[in-house]
Write a structure and sequence with these properties.
The chain is an alpha+beta fold. The protein has 3 helices and 10 strands. The protein has helices spanning about 15-25, 50-65, 115-125, and strands spanning about 35, 40, 70-75, 90, 105-110, 130-135, 140-150, 155-160, 165, 175. A 6-stranded mixed β-sheet has the order 3-4-5-6-7-8, with helices on both faces.
Length: about 180
Protein backbone atom coordinates (compact mmCIF):
# COMPACT_ATOMS: atom_id res chain seq x y z
CA UNK A 1 0.00 0.00 0.00
CA UNK A 2 1.35 3.41 -0.93
CA UNK A 3 0.25 6.29 1.26
CA UNK A 4 -0.31 9.62 -0.41
CA UNK A 5 0.10 11.63 2.78
CA UNK A 6 3.22 12.11 4.89
CA UNK A 7 0.99 12.15 7.98
CA UNK A 8 2.22 9.51 10.49
CA UNK A 9 -1.36 8.92 11.70
CA UNK A 10 -2.03 7.21 8.36
CA UNK A 11 0.23 4.29 9.25
CA UNK A 12 -1.37 0.91 8.87
CA UNK A 13 1.51 -1.36 9.82
CA UNK A 14 5.19 -0.40 9.70
CA UNK A 15 7.16 -2.48 7.20
CA UNK A 16 10.69 -3.72 7.53
CA UNK A 17 13.14 -3.08 4.72
CA UNK A 18 13.09 -6.83 4.00
CA UNK A 19 9.28 -6.87 3.65
CA UNK A 20 9.47 -3.80 1.43
CA UNK A 21 11.96 -5.56 -0.87
CA UNK A 22 9.79 -8.68 -0.98
CA UNK A 23 6.69 -6.68 -1.90
CA UNK A 24 8.66 -4.97 -4.66
CA UNK A 25 10.00 -8.29 -5.99
CA UNK A 26 6.42 -9.63 -6.11
CA UNK A 27 5.34 -6.59 -8.15
CA UNK A 28 3.10 -5.21 -5.42
CA UNK A 29 4.92 -1.90 -5.06
CA UNK A 30 5.42 0.68 -7.77
CA UNK A 31 9.03 1.37 -8.71
CA UNK A 32 8.43 5.04 -7.88
CA UNK A 33 8.17 4.56 -4.13
CA UNK A 34 10.41 4.79 -1.10
CA UNK A 35 10.26 3.45 2.43
CA UNK A 36 10.44 6.09 5.17
CA UNK A 37 10.17 5.00 8.80
CA UNK A 38 8.40 1.80 7.85
CA UNK A 39 5.84 3.53 5.59
CA UNK A 40 5.79 3.38 1.78
CA UNK A 41 5.43 6.73 0.06
CA UNK A 42 4.83 7.38 -3.60
CA UNK A 43 7.59 9.52 -5.07
CA UNK A 44 6.49 12.74 -6.71
CA UNK A 45 7.31 13.49 -10.31
CA UNK A 46 10.20 15.90 -10.78
CA UNK A 47 9.68 19.08 -12.72
CA UNK A 48 12.33 20.34 -15.18
CA UNK A 49 13.81 22.88 -12.74
CA UNK A 50 14.36 20.19 -10.10
CA UNK A 51 16.01 17.88 -12.63
CA UNK A 52 18.28 20.57 -14.03
CA UNK A 53 19.49 21.71 -10.59
CA UNK A 54 20.19 18.08 -9.69
CA UNK A 55 22.23 17.61 -12.89
CA UNK A 56 24.23 20.77 -12.15
CA UNK A 57 25.00 19.62 -8.61
CA UNK A 58 26.09 16.19 -9.89
CA UNK A 59 28.40 17.72 -12.49
CA UNK A 60 29.94 19.99 -9.84
CA UNK A 61 30.44 17.14 -7.37
CA UNK A 62 32.04 14.88 -9.99
CA UNK A 63 34.46 17.62 -11.00
CA UNK A 64 35.35 18.43 -7.39
CA UNK A 65 35.65 15.04 -5.73
CA UNK A 66 37.88 13.39 -8.37
CA UNK A 67 36.31 9.99 -7.67
CA UNK A 68 37.21 10.02 -3.95
CA UNK A 69 33.54 9.27 -3.24
CA UNK A 70 30.68 7.50 -4.93
CA UNK A 71 28.08 10.03 -6.03
CA UNK A 72 24.83 8.15 -5.81
CA UNK A 73 21.91 9.73 -7.65
CA UNK A 74 18.33 8.71 -6.77
CA UNK A 75 19.56 5.38 -5.42
CA UNK A 76 18.51 3.76 -2.15
CA UNK A 77 20.27 4.07 1.18
CA UNK A 78 19.28 1.35 3.63
CA UNK A 79 18.90 3.16 6.96
CA UNK A 80 17.17 1.21 9.73
CA UNK A 81 13.45 1.04 8.91
CA UNK A 82 13.86 3.34 5.91
CA UNK A 83 15.13 3.14 2.40
CA UNK A 84 15.04 6.67 1.03
CA UNK A 85 16.26 7.45 -2.46
CA UNK A 86 17.83 10.88 -2.05
CA UNK A 87 18.51 13.03 -5.05
CA UNK A 88 22.24 12.85 -4.26
CA UNK A 89 24.30 11.03 -1.65
CA UNK A 90 28.07 11.02 -1.26
CA UNK A 91 29.06 7.56 -0.05
CA UNK A 92 32.40 5.88 0.52
CA UNK A 93 33.81 3.92 -2.39
CA UNK A 94 32.86 0.27 -2.36
CA UNK A 95 31.02 -2.52 -4.09
CA UNK A 96 27.29 -2.08 -3.51
CA UNK A 97 26.17 -4.87 -5.83
CA UNK A 98 24.83 -7.06 -2.99
CA UNK A 99 23.40 -4.37 -0.70
CA UNK A 100 22.65 -0.68 -0.80
CA UNK A 101 24.91 1.69 1.15
CA UNK A 102 23.91 2.01 4.79
CA UNK A 103 25.74 5.27 5.42
CA UNK A 104 26.69 8.45 3.61
CA UNK A 105 28.87 11.46 4.29
CA UNK A 106 26.42 13.90 2.79
CA UNK A 107 22.85 13.71 1.48
CA UNK A 108 21.25 16.34 -0.75
CA UNK A 109 17.58 16.70 -1.63
CA UNK A 110 16.40 19.24 -4.21
CA UNK A 111 12.98 20.48 -3.17
CA UNK A 112 10.38 22.60 -4.83
CA UNK A 113 7.22 20.48 -4.51
CA UNK A 114 8.55 18.08 -1.85
CA UNK A 115 9.87 20.53 0.75
CA UNK A 116 7.77 19.35 3.73
CA UNK A 117 8.49 15.70 2.97
CA UNK A 118 12.24 16.34 2.57
CA UNK A 119 12.25 18.11 5.94
CA UNK A 120 10.56 15.04 7.44
CA UNK A 121 13.38 12.88 6.08
CA UNK A 122 15.87 14.78 8.25
CA UNK A 123 14.86 12.46 11.13
CA UNK A 124 15.77 9.40 9.09
CA UNK A 125 19.16 10.81 8.14
CA UNK A 126 19.90 12.02 11.68
CA UNK A 127 18.97 8.63 13.17
CA UNK A 128 21.36 7.00 10.68
CA UNK A 129 24.16 9.36 11.74
CA UNK A 130 24.53 11.06 8.34
CA UNK A 131 26.87 13.97 9.25
CA UNK A 132 25.35 16.51 6.86
CA UNK A 133 22.00 16.79 5.14
CA UNK A 134 21.20 19.60 2.72
CA UNK A 135 17.89 20.61 1.26
CA UNK A 136 18.18 22.83 -1.78
CA UNK A 137 14.99 24.75 -1.04
CA UNK A 138 14.02 26.10 -4.46
CA UNK A 139 10.81 27.60 -3.08
CA UNK A 140 12.71 30.17 -1.01
CA UNK A 141 16.09 30.04 -2.83
CA UNK A 142 17.86 28.81 0.30
CA UNK A 143 19.95 25.87 1.41
CA UNK A 144 18.71 24.22 4.58
CA UNK A 145 21.74 22.74 6.32
CA UNK A 146 21.29 20.01 8.93
CA UNK A 147 24.38 18.81 10.84
CA UNK A 148 25.66 17.19 13.99
CA UNK A 149 23.21 14.33 14.47
CA UNK A 150 22.68 13.38 18.09
CA UNK A 151 20.05 11.02 19.49
CA UNK A 152 18.08 10.95 16.26
CA UNK A 153 17.94 14.68 15.54
CA UNK A 154 20.21 17.24 13.98
CA UNK A 155 21.48 19.62 16.64
CA UNK A 156 22.60 22.27 14.18
CA UNK A 157 20.25 23.67 11.56
CA UNK A 158 21.20 26.67 9.44
CA UNK A 159 19.47 28.46 6.60
CA UNK A 160 21.88 29.76 3.96
CA UNK A 161 20.90 32.40 1.42
CA UNK A 162 21.72 31.69 -2.20
CA UNK A 163 24.91 33.79 -1.85
CA UNK A 164 26.13 32.29 1.44
CA UNK A 165 28.82 29.66 1.16
CA UNK A 166 28.28 26.11 2.39
CA UNK A 167 31.48 24.56 3.74
CA UNK A 168 31.25 20.88 4.44
CA UNK A 169 32.65 19.39 7.63
CA UNK A 170 32.23 15.83 6.33
CA UNK A 171 33.94 16.50 2.97
CA UNK A 172 36.49 19.24 3.71
CA UNK A 173 37.20 20.06 0.06
CA UNK A 174 33.52 20.74 -0.64
CA UNK A 175 32.14 24.27 -0.60
CA UNK A 176 29.67 26.08 -2.80
CA UNK A 177 26.83 28.59 -2.95
CA UNK A 178 23.30 27.84 -4.06
CA UNK A 179 23.59 30.64 -6.62
CA UNK A 180 26.11 28.50 -8.55
CA UNK A 181 23.34 26.08 -9.48
CA UNK A 182 20.41 28.42 -10.13
Amino acid sequence: MVLASANPENRIHPLSVEAYHLLYEKGLIDEKAELIEGVIYKKRPKNPKHSEIQRRINKFLYSLTKFEYVISTENPLTLGDSEPEPDIALVSPGDYSSSHPSEALLVIEVANTSLAFDRKKSRVYAQAGIPEYLIFNLVDSKIELYRQPKEGIYTEIKILSEEEEFKSFAVPTLNFRLAQFL
